[in-house]
Specification:
alpha/beta; Rossmann fold; binds BIS(adenosine)-5'-pentaphosphate
């Protein structure tokens, strides 16, 4: 299956995608994660996008579309994938349709208060990128990753001003994709408020393997 995970920042797209990728044996392709890896490695792409991402704005459509187009040619994406965080604009969605047929778009539904609560408590492993939450998914040892022991940090775009800006960008540029895909009969809404295991159960009952 070829999925798009759509929803506001902090809706839990990345957390669920990591689990669905394992249970459906398909890659989890997060444009945000690709950009963060490039920033960490100080590649030319990373240097170009760092300020934009830290501020919570969107990277240009051209750069992002080329990156995804290239990623989807890799062998592991032949039998399906989860696109997490792409497309994020109508231009990106229209371009994607020219080189790939998507099976389903999953829309994560959560109110702004839930987003702020999740993002302001998020902690991420510097080493392997695993997500935690100080209240909802705390690490076993404070500030250390359960998976690899790496140090946990707060993303620059999880500071309150950047969160507010990301929500604004989401409303203006990404939310119109909900109707775009609903009109194509590709959209499935999912309640993003419950615990991840409950959402995963709902997801698995909707999409047979
Ligand atoms: P990206 O990394 O995609 O950020 P995002 O869409 O803002 O999504 P997040 O990673 O913040 O949230 P999420 O929904 O994955 O939530 P998570 O699972 O982590 O993009 C970053 C930046 O890159 C963008 O701002 C932009 O600059 C650039 N970019 C990326 N794609 C682009 C594109 N297509 N075009 C242009 N620019 C692009 O969960 C959040 C927290 O909540 C965690 O702490 C988690 O532990 C917790 N949590 C998750 N689920 C639950 C649950 N069910 N119950 C309780 N807590 C939960």
């Amino acid at each position: 299956m070829k999925f798009i995970f759509l929803g506001p920042p902090g809706a839990g797209k990345g957390t669920l995608a990591a689990k669905v990728a394992l249970s459906f044996n398909i890659p989890h392709i997060s444009t945000g994660e690709i950009f963060r890896t490039a920033i960490k490695a100080k590649t030319p792409l990373g240097l170009k996008v760092q300020e934009i991402i830290d501020a919570g704005s969107l990277v240009s459509d051209d750069i992002t579309i080329e990156l995804v187009k290239d990623r989807l040619t890799k062998d592991d994406a032949k039998n399906g994938f989860i696109l997490d965080g792409f497309p994020r604009t109508i231009v990106q969605a229209e371009s994607l349709a020219t080189f790939c047929n998507i099976d389903s778009v999953v829309n994560f539904d959560i109110a702004d208060e839930g987003v702020v609560e999740r993002l302001s408590g998020r902690r991420v492993c510097k080493n392997c990128g695993q997500n935690f939450h100080v209240t909802f998914m705390p690490p076993k040892t404070e500030s250390k990753c359960d998976a690899c022991g790496g140090e946990l940090y707060i993303r620059d775009d999880d500071k309150i001003d950047a969160i507010k800006h990301r929500l604004d960008v989401y409303r203006k540029q990404t939310a119109p994709l909900i109707d775009f895909y609903r009109n194509k009969n590709l959209l499935t809404d999912i309640d993003a408020r419950p615990a991840t295991e409950i959402i995963l159960g709902e997801f698995e009952s909707k999409f047979s393997k």
